[in-house]
Amino acid sequence: MTPFARLSPENRPIAIAAIFVVVIVLFGTVYTLSTQGTAPMLSPGYLLQQLQIGSFLGICAAGMMVVILLGHIDLSVPWTLTAAAMMATTVGGPWAIPTGLAVGLLVGLLNGFGVAYLRIPSMIFTLGVDSVLRGLMVAHTGGFAPQTTASPLMRFLAADRIAGIPVAIFVWAGVSLVIAGILTRTGLGKAIYATGAKEGAAYLSGIRTRGVIVAAFVISALCASTAGVLLAGYSAKAYQGMGNAFLLPAIAAVVLGGTHILGGRGRYAGTLVGVILIVFLNSVLSIMQMPEAFRQIIYGVVIVGMLLVYGREGGSRT
Amino acid sequence: MRDLILRNRAFAGALAMFLVLFLGYHALHPRGFSTAVFIQNANESVAIAFVAMAQTIPVLMGGLDLSVGAVMTLANCIASHLVTGSPVQMVLGMIVTLACGTAFGLMNGLIVVYGRIQPIIATLATGAIAIGLALIIRPSPGGEIDGDLNWAVTNAVFDFAETYGLADDGNAAWLQPFVNIPVPLIILLVIGFGVWIPFKRTVTGRTVYAIGSAESAAFMSGLPVRRAKIAAFTLAGFFASCGGLYLAIQTSSGNADVSQAGAYTLNSIAAVVLGGSSLLGGIGGAIGSLVGAGILRVISFYFRILSIDPLLQPLIEGLVLLVAVSLGALRTLRVKNRLELFR
Amino acid sequence: MQDAAALQGAPPTPYHEAGMDSTTPHVALEGVSRYFGGITALKDVDFQCRRGTIHAILGENGAGKSTLIKIMAGVLPPSEGRMLLDGRPVAFRSPAEARDAGIVCIFQELSLIPDLSVADNIFIDRPPRSLGLIDRRAQRRRSEELLARIDCEDVNPDTNVRDLSLSRRQMVEIAKAISKNPSVLILDEATSALTSRDVQTVYDLLGKLREDNVASLFISHRMHEVDALCDTLSVFRNGHHIETFGKGERTSGEIVRLMIGRDIEAQFPPKPAPVAGKSPALKVEALKWEDRLKGIDIEVAPGEILGLGGLDGQGHKELLLALFGVLKGVTGRIELGGRPYRPASPARAKRQPTSLALVPEDRKTEGLMLQLSIADNLLTPNYARVSTGPLIDRSRADTAIADAVTQLQIKVGDVTDKVETLSGGNQQKVVIAKWLIDDPDVILLNDPTRGIDVGTKQEIYRLMRQLADAGKAIVLYSTDYDELIGCCDRVSILYDGRVVAELDGERLTEENIVSASLNIPGGEAA
C-alpha cells in the first residue's frame, strides 16, 4: 500500500520513524510561526542544544539496545547512571571518569553473571541490582545531594563546545560509532544477534552464549555510566534520582527504532532515529508548553500508534 | 498435607518466610504484639498487595504488565473525586473507579491481542497514558474522601461497626472474636480470594496457566487463548484499581505521582517473584503474590524497630530481593541437558 | 522387486471376520493424497477402519502413517480425496471438530500442559462444572475413575504433569483421550515411551474398547505388540497404502518385506573398499548419561561413515549431544584423534585439535536462526576464522560465504536474504555449510535428510562421501534405513541406550537393521 512495502523489515520502522521526526519538526515550526512568528526548531543553535541534551539519552539507549537485541532488558540503568556519577564526583580529579566507568563495569559483570549463569530473568535481576545500587548510594550520600562537584574534564565533555558544536554530541557520536561497529563489524556483534535470535542454535554453533550475555550487560552498564559521568558534568554535580528519567525513554527509543523487544532484530541507525524522535517530540511539547499530563498521554499514544503502524506494514510481527 | 506442601513448594516457602519475618517483627517490637501496630501494618500493605495480585495474572500468562502502578494511580485520582457525598454517591463512585481501571486493563488486553504488540511494550506505553489521565484528573495532590469511610475502613472491625452503628456499635457478643481484626486485611482477603479463586476455576483462568506453561499445547487442546489473554489484562486492571481505590480512602486524597507509580509497578514484579510465581509463566498464583507483597512490606517494617540506620533500608531491601531470586535459580544447576536452559 | 511385487499383486485379502465386509466401515478414506510443497506424503490412499477392531498401521519412517492419522484427526486437510464417517463425507477443520465427531488421537508429541495437574489436563477443554466454575471435586473423582480404568491408581490427580515420568505422562494422555468417549481412538507410537507394565495395561484397555465397539488405530514399531494385539493390519510405504490383511495371515518376515518394498532406489555414491588398521578419529567407550545412555561403545576412523540406526528414542540424539558437550554428567572414555577428550561445551568441541561439528536434529530451532540472513547463519561458528583481532574481515567473510554457497550448491537469491526464505533442503545445506567452513575432523549428523526432497538428499549423500574421502570421520544418525545402508560403511544399532548390533558389508541389510532395531534375535525376520 505504500512505498515502505519495498523496504526490508529492519529498515521500514527506521524510515517511518525518520518521517515522523520530520513531521514533528515541521509541526513545531508551523506552531511557532503561527504563535510567535519565529521558527526556532529550524535554527542550528537550537537543534544542537537539543541534541546536546539528547546525547545522555542517546548513550543510554545505545547500551540498552545491545541488551534488548539479546531479548533481555536492563532495568538497572537509572542507578548505574547515578552511581557512576556520584562515585565520579566523589573521587574527583583525573580519576573521576575512570572511577565512573569502573562502576559501570562492575555493575555490568554482576548483571551478566545473574542473567547468564544463574539464568534469572533479566527483568527481575537487574531490578534487584538497581535497588542495591540505590541503597548503596543512599548509604553513601546520606540521601542528600552530594556536595562534591564534577571534575573539569567532565565539565568539558558535557558542557563545552568545540567549533560551536557541543562536545557531548561528539561523545555520543563516538559511543555510537563504537556500538555500531561492534554490532556490524565484530564477531561479538554477530554473536549478539545470533544469541538473541535463538540462544539454543547459537550455543550449538559453538558460540559462548554466556560470555556474550555478560558482554552485552557490561556494554549497557558502561554506556549508562558514561551517560552518568556526562550528566554530572553537565549539571556540575551528581544528584539523587538523576537517572530515573532515562530508563523508559531509552527502552522506547530502542523499540521505536525497530529493534524487536524479544531480540535478534534491529539496527543501530534505528535506535539513533528513535532517540532523535523522542528528543524532538520533547522539545516540541516544551515549546508548546504542553502540561506534563498531556505529554505522558502523547508519549503513550505515539509508542502504541507507531508500533501498530510497524506491525500493519510488516505483517510478519510475531 | 505433605503432598500439598511439596506441590506448592515455592508458595510454602514464601509463606514460611513471611510468617518468620512477621512473627519476628512482632517479637522484636518494643511493645510486643498490638492491634494498633497490626492495623497499621495491614493498612500499609493493601495497595502493594493489590498491585502485586494485578501483576500476577499477566505474569502467569508469560507476559508482564508495566502499567499496573499507573492504573492504580489513575484509580486513586478518580476515587479522590468521586468517593464522597451521600452513601449512594460513594458506592457509585467506587463502582466507577473500579470500572475505569478494569476498562483500562481491557484496553491493554485488546492492544496486546489484536495489535500484536508485546505486552511489556504495550503496557509501558499505556502506563504513560494512564499517568497522563491521572495528572489531568488530579494536577496536584489532594481530594476529598468521606471521613467516616476513611476511619471505618482503615481500622479494626470494632471501629467499622461503631462508625456505621452495626452490631450494637460493635459491642454485640457474636462480633467479639473478630473486633480486633483490621478491616484492610478483611478487604484484601475477601477481594483476593473472592475474585481470584473463582477465576482460577474457570476455563479462562485455567487457560491463562496453560498459555504460560505451553502455549502451543493450549492451542492444540482447543482452549480459548485470545479470550484468556484479554481477561488476564482486564483482571489486572481490576486489581490495580482496587489498590488505587483503597489508597485514596486510606490517605483521603489522590496523588498522580509518576515515580510512585513506577515504584509500585517494579515492586509488584518483585512481590510476584517472591510469592513463588515464575516470570516465565504457568506457575504461581495471586495468593502467593499477596504473601510476596507482605514480605516486601514486613522487611521495611523492621527498620522502624531495629536500630538500623534508615539509610541502609533501600540497600537491605535490594539485597533481600536479589538473594531470594538467586535461591530460586539453584534449580538450573540440576539441569542435565544444557539445551533445556534455552527454552 | 520380486517378493514385494508378488505380494502386492495378490488379490485383496478378506478381513479376518467374515461378514464385516457387508457393513459400512466407520471411517473411510477415498483417494486421499497429501502434498507438502513438492513432497508427496500420501498418494491416492483408500483406507477403511471398522468399529470393534484394533487396526495396526505399519510402515517405515516416512511411509505416510503420521500424515494419514493427522488427516483423520483433523490436524491436516487432505490435498485431494475425501473422508467418510459412517458413509457420510466429513471435512474437519480442526482437531476439536474431529474430536466432536468422536475421533480422538494421542499424538507422539505430548499435548499435555506441564504446569497443570493431571486432573486439569484430563479435562482441559471441557471440565465438569457447577455454577459455571470448574467442579474440582467432580473432576478429581472422574479423573480417579479414568486412571483406575487404565490401572494408574498410583497417579495422584493433583500432581503436576511436569513431575510425572514420561511413561506416566503418556498414560495421562491416554486417560485424557478416553475421557472423550471416542468412537475412533488413534494411538501414534503411544506405547514407545511406556514401561512394559503400562504397555500391558494399554493392551487390556484396547481389548475392552474393542468390546465397546470402538475402533482403535494403532501405530507401533514393535512387531511383537502388533502380533499380540491387532485384528487387522495395514502396511504403508512411501505414501502408498500397500495392503490390508487380517491377523495371522502374514509372517513377520513377509510383513517386514512389505514394509521395505523395493520401488525407489536412492542413488548412493559407491563405497570404497574398507581399509583396516586406521587409528580411529573418534573412540567412545562405556559412555553413560542419566538413564538414556547405558554404556555406548563406538569408534569411527578418518574416511569412514558410521551409521547409527534403530527406533526413535533409543539414545541416538543423546549420544550425539553428549559428544558435542551439551549434556552434563556424562561418564565414560572418549578419545579424539588419540587424545582423551572431555566434552564440556560446543565451543570447546569445535576447538579440539581433532575438531567436532554437529548438524542438530531440528534445523529450525537448533540449527539456524531463521530471522537472520543466510550470510550471518553461515558465519555463526566461524567468527574467529574470518576476523583479524576483534574485527571481521569483510573480504575474508565474503569469500568463505561464497565458497560455502558454491560447494554445497545452495540456491540463493542473495546471501543477505533471511534464511527462512529458503526451502527446507537449502536450509539444511546452510546448516551443513556453516560447519564445513569451520573444517571439522569429525562430523556428527542427526538425521540430516529428514523432510527434504530427494534431489537434495542425493546431493547430501554425495557430499558426505566426498568429505569422508577427504579424510573426515562421519557419524550419521538416520531414521531412513535405505540411507544407512546406502551411505554408511558400518551401522551401529541402538536399543534402549546400548549398541545391540554392529552391521557392515554383507550383513548390512534392511532385514538385519529392522530385526536389530526391534531387538529380535538376528535373522528371525528374514
Automatic annotation (TrEMBL), chain A:
One Pfam entry name: BPD_transp_2
Subcellular location, principal: membrane
Compartment(s): Cell membrane
Keywords: Cell membrane, Membrane, Transmembrane, Transmembrane helix
Membrane topology: Multi-pass membrane protein
Alphabetized GO MF terms: transmembrane transporter activity
Regions that span the bilayer: 14-33, 53-75, 95-117, 162-183, 212-236, 242-262, 269-287, 293-311
CDD domains noted in UniProt: TM_PBP1_transp_AraH_like (cd06579)
One cellular-component annotation, GO: plasma membrane
Top-level taxon in the UniProt lineage: Bacteria
Name of protein: Monosaccharide ABC transporter membrane protein (CUT2 family)
Record-linked InterPro entries: ABC_transp_permease
TrEMBL record, chain B:
Alphabetical list of InterPro entries matching this protein: ABC_transp_permease
Subcellular compartments: Cell membrane
Gene Ontology CC: one annotated term: plasma membrane
Pfam name, any one: BPD_transp_2
Membrane topology classification: Multi-pass membrane protein
Molecular function via GO: transmembrane transporter activity
Primary residence: membrane
Transmembrane feature ranges: 12-28, 48-79, 91-114, 120-137, 179-199, 230-249, 261-280, 311-333
Alphabetized UniProt keyword annotations: Cell membrane, Membrane, Transmembrane, Transmembrane helix
Protein name: Monosaccharide ABC transporter membrane protein (CUT2 family)
Organism of derivation: Silicimonas algicola
Classification lineage: Bacteria, Pseudomonadati, Pseudomonadota, Alphaproteobacteria, Rhodobacterales
UniProtKB/TrEMBL annotation, chain C:
Keywords of this entry: ATP-binding, Nucleotide-binding, Repeat, Sugar transport, Transport
GO MF annotation: an example: ATP hydrolysis activity
Protein's UniProt keywords contain S-adenosyl-L-methionine: no
InterPro entries in alphabetical order: AAA+_ATPase (IPR003593), ABC_carbohydrate_import_ATPase (IPR050107), ABC_transporter-like_ATP-bd (IPR003439), ABC_transporter-like_CS (IPR017871), P-loop_NTPase (IPR027417)
Domain ABC transporter intervals: 27-263, 277-521
Region (Disordered): 1-22
Plastid is among the record's keywords: no
PANTHER family listed in its UniProt record: CARBOHYDRATE TRANSPORT ATP-BINDING PROTEIN MG119-RELATED, GALACTOFURANOSE TRANSPORTER ATP-BINDING PROTEIN YTFR
Listed name of the protein: Monosaccharide ABC transporter ATP-binding protein (CUT2 family)
The organism of origin for this protein: Silicimonas algicola
